[in-house]
Design a protein that fits this description.
151 residues, mainly alpha, two-stranded parallel ribbon
Length: 151
C-alpha cells in the first residue's frame, strides 16, 4: 500500500535498502570524522547519540568504500571482556584463537601493529556503547591505550 500510494517502485525502508538520511550538522560532523578515520588522520572515533537517528546506517554506508579494511561490529550482546577479545581476534585479528584475556590482548596488539605498518586498517564499531557492560567498556579503554602507546 505504501509503495502504491506514493508511486514508488520499491520499498525504501526494506532491510537491504539504504535508509533515507536527514542531513544535520551532527551527521555532517560524523561523516567528516569517518572520512578522517578512512584517510588515516585519526585512529579512533567514538560516535554516540540518540538511537534511531541514522548513525549505524551512515557508518555502514561510509565504510563500504574503505580498502584493506578489517571490521568488527560490537553489539551490546558481547557481555564480557573474554567474548569481546575473542570476537576481535576472530574478526580483525589472525582468526580463531583460544587464550586468556591477557593472551588475546597481546595477540591483538602484535597483529594490529603489523597491520598498521602494512597500511591495513582495522575498525571496531561499538554499537550502543551506553548499553555495554562496564567490564567490556573497561577492556575497550585498555585496548585503546595499547594502540596509543604503540603509535
Amino acid at each position: 500500500m505504501f509503495i502504491e500510494q506514493y508511486k514508488l517502485e520499491r520499498n525504501p525502508f526494506a532491510e537491504d535498502s539504504v535508509r533515507p538520511l536527514f542531513v544535520s550538522q551532527s551527521m555532517r560532523e560524523v561523516s567528516t570524522l569517518i572520512r578522517k578515520v578512512g584517510e588515516g588522520k585519526i585512529q579512533t572515533a567514538v560516535i554516540s547519540g540518540l538511537a534511531g537517528v541514522g548513525k549505524t546506517t551512515l557508518l555502514t554506508q561510509r565504510i563500504r568504500g574503505f580498502k584493506d579494511l578489517s571490521l568488527s561490529w560490537i553489539s551490546p550482546d558481547v557481555d564480557s571482556p573474554q567474548k569481546l577479545l575473542e570476537k576481535l581476534v576472530l574478526e580483525i585479528g589472525p582468526g580463531s584463537v583460544e587464550g586468556s584475556c591477557e593472551e588475546l590482548r597481546n595477540i591483538l596488539e602484535v597483529f594490529l601493529t603489523h597491520q598498521r605498518k602494512n597500511d591495513r586498517m582495522s575498525v571496531v564499531i561499538v554499537d550502543g556503547l551506553e548499553r555495554q557492560r562496564r567490564e567490556v567498556v573497561d577492556e575497550l579503554r585498555q585496548l585503546l591505550q595499547l594502540r596509543y602507546k604503540q603509535k
